[in-house]
């Protein structure tokens, strides 16, 4: 009898222990499932909140801004930044050389939901000199929702990044950023900075003013920065006149900035083996209406420059041009 009682007590204890063990396992498994679900919910929640929080508060505002940088490491250029343009706005990224056109150097991308953008450009091995990079937003060539927001021709765009463009039949407003990326150093980073324009009082006057430019030199280029009172988009040509030589490649053509300022980059004569001993030459900065196709420029200065006035005007048989010569000594 005692043996039977003892066996019954042992069996009951085993059942109790097994039941507790199974219960603990079930509780543990339930806890793990609960924690996993909680973690998943938190991750999804964080992802959604962060994406919304990272978007600019003024996203879609007509006064557009950009920030970020253009970075070169070896032959790879990385363009990355942030803007308050609407998501899916198309940015056109251009890459060219000061010394010649780079085939296939252009591409486009869309602004992300949080306002960021990022792309990479590969510099062809044969290009060793200064590289020009541009970022352009052109509403007229974008999708219809973007046109509806900023205007069919970008007429609602505002801010210092905005430029006038008349390369097509209609007058347009675009956002434009330009950078010069050197290759004579191992790496280079150029920050995106908001330009500051300072229009002169005589801006757009028919009496043309071309100030003495600031000229800096290195082993390969002339960097010419100057001010005029010419209208935005007026095309200026800078060319080198080298005594005793007929040359055509030492020049740059640029469009005047919104305040009449400009910047040119011209290869030095010494980059050519035949001209390596040249010590003196002239920089000729000129504005010829034949170089200008914009209707607003022709209306302001005349189809053939007949309205141009002032000390820098050169009269020819049927036209007038503005011209300034600067002597350069190496």
Describe it:
The chain is built from 3 helices and 17 strands. It is an alpha+beta fold. It has 2 domains: 58-196, Sandwich (Immunoglobulin-like), CATH 2.60.40; 198-330, Immunoglobulin-like. The chain has a 5-stranded antiparallel beta sheet, with no helix packed on it. A hairpin with a 4-residue loop joins strand 16 (313-315) and strand 17. It starts with a helix and ends with a strand.
Task: Please supply descriptive tags for the structure shown above.
330 residues, Immunoglobulin-like, alpha+beta, single chain, disordered N terminus, five-stranded antiparallel sheet
Protein topology:
Blueprint: H1 2-54, E1 66-73, E2 76-83, E3 90-97, E4 106-110, E5 116-122, E6 131-137, H2 144-150, E7 162-165, E8 172-181, E9 187-191, E10 214-217, E11 221-227, E12 235-241, E13 251-255, E14 261-267, E15 280-288, H3 295-301, E16 313-315, E17 320-329
Antiparallel strand pairs: 1-2, 1-9, 2-5, 3-4, 3-6, 6-8, 7-8, 10-11, 11-14, 12-13, 12-15, 15-17, 16-17
Number of helices: 3
Strand tally: 17
Roughly how much helix do the residues carry, as a percent range? 10-25%
Shape: globular
Organism: Fictibacillus arsenicus
Protein name: Lipoprotein
Region (Disordered): 24-56
Keywords: Signal
